[in-house]
UniProtKB/TrEMBL annotation:
This is Signal recognition particle receptor FtsY. Part of the signal recognition particle protein translocation system, which is composed of SRP and FtsY. One of its GO terms (cellular component) is plasma membrane. GTP binds at residues 164-171, 246-250, 304-307. The lineage of its organism: Archaea, Methanobacteriati, Methanobacteriota, Stenosarchaea group, Methanomicrobia. The gene is ftsY.
Amino acid sequence: MFNKLKNKLSGFKQNFSSKIEDKATPVEESSATEPEAAAEGGRFEEKEAVTGTKDENKTGFAHKAKALVFEREFILDEADVEDILWELEMSLLESDIAISVSEKIVTDVKQELVGSRKKIGGNTSKIVEDALKKSINDVMSANVFDFDEFIDNHEKPVNIVFVGINGTGKTTSIAKIAHRLKAMNKSVVIAAGDTFRAGAIDQIAVHAERIGVKLIKHQEGGDPAAVVYDAVQYAKAHDSDVVLSDTAGRMHTNVNLMAQLQKICRVSAPDLVLFVDEAVAGNDAVERAEQFNEAVPVDGSILTKTDADSKGGAAISIAYVTGKPIVFLGMGQDYEDLIKFDPHWFVDQIFS
Ligand SMILES: Nc1nc2c(ncn2[C@@H]2O[C@H](COP(=O)(O)OP(=O)(O)OP(=O)(O)O)[C@@H](O)[C@H]2O)c(=O)[nH]1
Ligand SMILES: [Mg+2]
């Protein structure tokens, strides 16, 4: 997962940190009187020994540890790192990170590390990693959403409609979420709202039976808005917690099918509309999220097939560009392969 992105960031870290090493100088200290220390660019500090009584310590030098403390600092000019930052921006774009996000990350790193005097606390590679991590974390934390809290605090039943283009993992994500909610002791109703694709109703019926949740279905070719409406009515009558409504995959360019989606939302007034797309689709997923959002206001995204994504671009960009949070990441084909999105977890993964 994210291997290409990891390699690119690691290359940047190395290049940037060797530039810092080139420019690093010892901190100027008046106390650096020991010739040896001065020659090595460090300074001596006398430190109290940690053992011994007060009196023993007072006896002086024998009870004091002399430690050589190297303190270094650096100042980078823009010209020093222009090429390296350019390479970073290219690497981010090649990783399918949206232009606005790539520019923001480069600007943040520049602001953090260029133009001002910085002390070298740990190693130089860590300094660069921290700056990158902070920026990516900021970008990804721009919009966050706690699904469990939403379900707990919202009036029942919570109606969630899943939308997206064909084959992205809508039905599988519904099954995973139903499984997850059931484990949390929530009662779930699934609406077989894909009445269009042959076999779609059977596919979701198999999931519902395996997981042990109620399925509301009509005939193939029926009106999906009516299916979702019926599922919500059933959930109200049975005091169910959540309705998960499947819909047929559709291209955002298909005006009639997008109008049908608007009808589903008009009729069933969903509490959440979740856009489902593949992480591997990169920028395309981000663009599609925006286009779906124009038709039916989308509240958040689920990125599936993250397990197969080597670039990480969609995951880093989609919430920042669309202004809508990532809610879940799909991580495989089993019911357990779903994680609630957490920017810190993600950032740890790409620097692991
Ligand atoms: N590796 C991996 N495969 C996934 C993931 N989510 C879904 N899939 C697979 O993607 C394929 C399509 O999944 P579906 O859930 O049928 O997709 P859909 O969006 O409902 O498709 P349509 O109803 O045809 O629009 C299936 O083979 C799933 O097993 C995931 O997170 N990781
Ligand atoms: Mg489906």
